[in-house]
Amino acid sequence: MMATIKLKDFTVKPGKKVSLSDWKPDDDGGLSKTDGEARLEKNLAEVDQLQMKFWANKSRSLLVVLQGIDTAGKDGVIRKVMTALNPQGVTVHSFKKPNDVELAHDYLWRVHTLCPGKGEISVFNRSHYEDIIVGRVHGFLKSKEIEQRQRQINDFERMLVEEGTIVLKFFLTISNEEQLERLHARLDDQSKHWKFSINDVNERAKWPQYIDAFESMLSTTSTDHAPWIVVPSNRKWFRNLLVSEALLGQLSALNMKWPEPTEDLSKITLK
Questions:
Q1: Between the CA of residue 34 and those of 2, 104, 118, 173, what are the distances in Å?
Q2: Measured in Å, how far apart are the chain's first and last C-alpha atoms?
């Protein structure tokens, strides 16, 4: 009998002070890689069908947030899990350093404009949380400003949920040793050089500061309406599986039916 994955074991309880050491980055959920990959393919086939109903109904929207330290696998999740979806109803957005136009507005302005419409799924590869994390690690936000942004983001996500958007947030966690190995792999593989930057080395040196920032983020912004799911990501196949389990669970819970036709199809004759 295949092991049962309990999403609640990976979900951050609202109000809980988080220590990332509570989750083992190399967790495999008690599954073998073969069983895990087979289950992933089954999940994706079901998600594909559910997404078609989601798109056809146009009654709800879904925002998927992917956060994690460099090399944790955000791109990998998008390639393996999200590309199983129909691209007609899915958009992927990456958030880089704000440009001059974005800086002229509040920090959530550029985020809100990219949130999904009814029937759509939007995937944020990094997100509005960068506006807390980077400011904290690099010291250009004061403690009061960080607390204010945490509160504002909670309110922002609550508004999205109350307006019909499902907010599904994943934090991908890997070990320090795994990150080093993955950075070496990028250097050793010419086809991955485009992904490497000298800034990756500089940011790696700030590992303790990033862990502190992530733990604070998870502790203060996991809410009843938009909880964080911590995804152990040393094993890429388990990372993908856990994300697919959560995605399948959310879509299944909607109990969607195919929408009724707007016309009486019984009167249509094809020749």
A1: 11, 50, 36, 22
A2: 52
Can you tell me whether residue 148 is helix, strand or coil? helix
Q: Mind listing the pLDDT tens digit for each residue in 135-162?
A: 999 999 999 999 999 999 999 999 999 9
In three-state form (DSSP H/G/I as H, E/B as E, the rest C), the secondary structure along 201-213 is: HHHHCCHHHHHHH
Which residue from 84, 91, 25, 74 is spatially nearest to 49, judged by alpha carbons?
84
Q: Taking Cα atoms as reference points, which of 159, 203, 160, 154 lies closest to residue 180?
A: 203
Query: In whole angstroms, what is the distance from residue 39 CA to residue 35 CA?
Result: 6
For 203, counting Cβ atoms within 10 Å of its Cβ (0-12 exposed, 13-18 middle, 19+ buried), the class is: middle
- How many residues are recorded in the chain? 271
User: Contact, 221 vs 30, CB < 8 A?
Assistant: no
| Radius of gyration for the chain, computed over Cα atoms and rounded to the nearest angstrom | 20
Euclidean distance between CA atoms 271 and 263, whole angstroms:
19
Q: pLDDT tens across 207-218, in order? A: 999 999 999 999
The arrangement of secondary structure in 33-48+61-254, i.e. its CATH architecture, is: 3-Layer(aba) Sandwich (3.40)
Place of tokens 């966690």: 173
